[in-house]
Design a protein that fits this description.
With 341 residues, this protein is α+β, with helices and mostly antiparallel strands. It contains 10 helices and 13 strands. Bound molecules: adenosine-5'-diphosphate and magnesium ion. The site of adenosine-5'-diphosphate (ADP) has 13 residues, from helix 1, strand 4 and strand 5.
Length: 341
């Protein structure tokens, strides 16, 4: 039976000790982990390390009114794993900086830690260190470490005019899930897959690793801020215009119907919504068809557009172009999307 994670009863060092006992770090990969001044990783020969950090702050990125603590623990790590996936990296471990209110509920902390460590186990990415501080609100920052064969990391830059644009899975479900949570409609059976998509995103770790090994992608990014925004980064690096056809955008089953019940425009939500954590990548004009990608990457892949001369991102619906500018989420900008993203 694990120690009850009560911050007030355990204190900082008691909490660290409880985390250490539950973290299960393989000694083959980490010669030191929780308990010393810093963790020591043994990289494999001819590899490079890939590092990423993501912070989530209570009432900015999540609210306990719309998420359970276990999902939060999962998501805190999943968003970092998605960044590693976009680099084609194999996860190796992560550090957790945890800021807690002194009166943090033990059930909440327990839920958070069990969700976090279950995801860590699933992706073989152990907790190897971190920090704990007190704070007026919950805040956590995860720094994840991955590994790629030397010189092979998948990058946002590298696409060229004429390259085709591919997307894993489907988009819009997470943004719709958030809308449903906000509208207190999350318990409806039809809402469940979308809410789950928002609270428990699946990072495309294996697809990213396979994409790296295959070596066919010219540029890769994960969709965290919305297709338009994230595709914009690839287009910008390529000095080109990303043109996508809205009809080719893969939407989850039941998505259109659910959007229309809420009075939302399905394609707008799918293009600008964000937190899909899919892989968006480009391939050369002679690369195989999307169905070949689906088979080799082990997940659905759709071809959604092409890079042309020009700038920015253009979406077409049946030939009609519509320019999209302020799609997606960007901190510190005024925007019309929900304020708690
Ligand atoms: P220092 O003051 O030297 O930074 P700490 O007391 O903060 O040391 O941390 C002691 C050990 O506990 C370190 O190995 C650190 O990585 C680990 N640790 C602290 N907080 C966490 C946490 N939230 N998750 C995992 N390990 C942690
Ligand atoms: Mg410290």
């Amino acid at each position: 039976m694990a120690t009850k994670l009560d911050p007030r009863a355990l204190g900082e060092f008691g909490l660290i000790d409880a985390l250490r006992r539950r973290a299960r770090v393989a000694r083959s990969a980490w010669s030191e982990s929780i308990g010393d001044d810093a963790a020591v990783l043994r990289p494999r020969p001819n590899t490079e390390l890939v590092l990423t950090a993501d912070a989530l702050v209570e009432d900015i990125h999540f609210r306990f009114a719309t998420t359970d603590a276990r999902s939060l623990g999962h998501k805190a790590l999943a968003v970092n794993l998605s960044d590693l996936a976009a680099m084609g990296a194999t996860p190796r471990g992560f550090l957790l900086s945890l800021a807690l209110p002194p009166i943090a509920l033990p059930e909440r902390l327990e839920g958070f830690v069990s969700g976090l460590l279950a995801t860590a186990k699933k992706y073989r990415c152990p907790l190897v260190g971190g920090d704990i501080v007190s704070s007026p609100v919950w805040m956590f920052s995860i720094t994840a470490v991955g590994e790629v064969p030397r010189g092979k990391a998948l990058l946002r830059r590298g696409a060229r005019i004429g390259d085709r644009i591919m997307l894993s899975g489907d988009v819009g479900g997470s943004a719709l899930g958030l809308q449903l949570l906000e509208a207190s409609a999350a318990r409806e059976p039809r809402a469940r897959p979308f809410v789950r998509r928002h609270l428990r995103p699946t990072p495309r770790v294996e697809a990213g690793e396979r994409l790296l090994r295959w070596g066919v992608a010219t540029a890769v990014i994960d969709v965290s801020d919305g297709v338009v925004q994230d595709l914009g980064h690839i287009a910008q690096f390529a000095g080109s215009c990303a043109e996508i056809d809205i009809e080719d955008l893969p939407l989850p089953r039941g998505f259109r119907a659910a959007c229309s019940r809420l009075g939302l425009e399905a394609h707008e939500l799918a293009l600008a919504g964000g937190e899909d954590f899919e892989l968006l990548f480009t391939v050369g004009p002679n690369a195989p068809a999307a169905r070949v990608f689906s088979k080799r990457l082990g997940c659905p892949i759709s071809e959604i557009g092409v890079l042309r001369r020009g700038r920015g991102v253009v979406a077409r619906r049946g030939g009609e172009p519509l320019r999209l500018s302020a799609g997606g989420f960007e901190h510190f900008k005024t925007l019309s999307l929900p304020s708690d993203k």
